[in-house]
Amino acid sequence: MAEAVGVSHAAVSYAYNRPDKLSQQQRSRILAVAAELGYPGPNPTGRSLRTGKVGALGLILTDSLPYAFEDPGVALLMRGIAEVGELAQVALTLLPAPLEAVPAAASLDALLRGVVDGFMVYAMPDRHPVLDSVLRRRLPVVTIDGPALEGHSRVGIDDRGAAREAARHLLALGHRDVAVLVSRLSPDGRSGPASHSRIAHARDRVMKARVKGYRDAFAEAGVGVLPVVEAGGFSAAQSRAGAEMLLDTRSVTAVLAATDVLALALLDAAAGRGLRVPEDLAVIGFDDLPAAAVAGLTTVRQPMTQKGQEAARLLLNTINGTPGTHLVTLPTELVVRGSTGEPTTGSTASPH
Amino acid sequence: MAEAVGVSHAAVSYAYNRPDKLSQQQRSRILAVAAELGYPGPNPTGRSLRTGKVGALGLILTDSLPYAFEDPGVALLMRGIAEVGELAQVALTLLPAPLEAVPAAASLDALLRGVVDGFMVYAMPDRHPVLDSVLRRRLPVVTIDGPALEGHSRVGIDDRGAAREAARHLLALGHRDVAVLVSRLSPDGRSGPASHSRIAHARDRVMKARVKGYRDAFAEAGVGVLPVVEAGGFSAAQSRAGAEMLLDTRSVTAVLAATDVLALALLDAAAGRGLRVPEDLAVIGFDDLPAAAVAGLTTVRQPMTQKGQEAARLLLNTINGTPGTHLVTLPTELVVRGSTGEPTTGSTASPH
DNA sequence: CTGTTAGCGCATTCAC
DNA sequence: GTGAATGCGCTAACAG
Hints:
The structure is a homodimer of 352-residue chains.
Chain A: H1 9-17, H2 24-37, H3 44-51, E1 56-61, H4 65-68, H5 72-87, E2 91-95, H6 104-113, E3 118-122, H7 129-136, E4 141-144, E5 153-157, H8 159-173, E6 178-182, E7 192-193, H9 196-200, H10 205-220, E8 228-230, H11 236-249, E9 254-257, H12 260-272, E10 282-284, H13 290-295, E11 299-301, H14 304-319, E12 327-330, E13 333-335
Parallel strand pairs in A: 1-2, 1-3, 3-4, 4-5, 5-12, 6-8, 6-9, 9-10
Antiparallel strand pairs in A: 7-8, 11-13
Helix pairs in contact in A: 1-2, 5-14, 6-7, 8-10, 11-12
Chain B binds a DNA duplex (16 and 16 nucleotides) through α1 and α3.
């Protein structure tokens, strides 16, 4: 503390944080000297150590960060988080969540080192190693669409119920030959038709819940078969490949796409084959991304931005000492646009 | 340090950070006790205070954070940053940059408190108060498309040259009645036709440079008039309003849109009026966002992701002690698609 | 190999 | 009002 130039130590601290505890004159003199000496003001790290607060919320996304920015849904989520973060004057720290393949010790470290006041965990598959690391930090945690963590708040939607509603819509229109397209059921890179067992052991809770919802509706209606195809991941390339694969292997009048990204890829793939939507192929998505409206996609709307807001608010509250854990379930809504209609008598979407 | 349970203080630290400096047995014993006691491992804040490093890169965006997530270009930039950051095992911290209107003292504080090892500043207008705060921190800084800061590295493109090339393309096609649409010249919310003086005093360097480039080409060609219309901001809504305004007030055969977001809005607005592109209206954008390819937009490609990568690398190097400041200028390229063509003899795009 | 010592920069007591 | 002392949790350097 080089500010021995006149006054003593704590006075400097007061000058910055407690203007009331110092004489006006003293304060401005200190600030002037500081400016002259190029003293940058209280060091945030020192302050954090002392106060125990950092002023940053950590956000952990599945898979690698770089990919996350490809996902329009993530952007909406972050927007919501940023809105309340900005109001509360806290920063948003994106933590690099290591891929599962990486040896735990090496890169989970980075996460453990993250200087934040709490974590938000988005769409993490069950039993992902990162969860242990997060829990070990003993900081406030809020999961979003993630696993329910003992003693921590969670925000999400009723994925199963919403998916059920989407499937009912298709059934009501008369579709019986329907397939499901999901991004992935477990983070192991596998793609292609998914067996019952694979679905039963799915680690991606959101995808699993949506598949369950679709099946609920078909079971209700007494329509037995509902094949599930897995794209293998969330990226645009994987989504497109999954769409092509489904169209290659299945002869259906409609597809239940578990995300809008998949549905949009399906629309492209269908157009590439000269299939008319919805006459030859009806498509229903999930999420209601901005692009869905443009494409005229029938889909399930979920309030992604609000999800982010809620999560950030919940986390902030916990950080600030409000006790209690909350489970917030946000509403969804089926949005019917032009990509769904009654099936034509002969299915023209045939294999190859 | 409650770990007086057997060994002494620093040994615990070694157990976590320097396995080689401890006997295998000692180490595992410490770790076992830690697990039992629920000791979360070394506290990141304490470590940071001691080592002087945090493990996080700060990113400061113009205007408010929430809006930034609406901008597809920002997503690409962050993607690049995240790629490098993930490799280097550092987190990315998004700092809330206060709006200019807000009284400086209040919210610049949050920024000063940001616990990071260095800053990346994106597209900051000249003389924005946030710059002072950043500089005051005396941490490494890299600006992206931002003002050139004395002694700090910078990455950008040749906006003026690239814009010149875009304008030349239009001139070569035979267009003479052309208008420029920019998002904003200064962050004061003004929209509408921009006077020469307003352009000359523009604080948004990127927009200003592009306008200059457009003008260069028209001056070269001896075509005098090149009206500039300002949308007032970057948002989708403002872009659309700006596009409508331009179409309302100007009778032109082509528009030089200073960003793809504006160009895309223009395409929509034109479609809404039944104008054919490029026959009735030629449009050229800037950035080459993914959406530009889909829309068949002629535009200037700039490597946004690479911008992020370079900036992050530069910052990381500086943080790690590599001396020197660098000015990196990335290449651009004119991408001709379907939105530009020769003007038809009679301009059909008439006011109202 | 192991334990001890000494700050990193700060905010908060408490005494004056 | 102001100044001096204390400890937040850690790691680097040194001494055993």
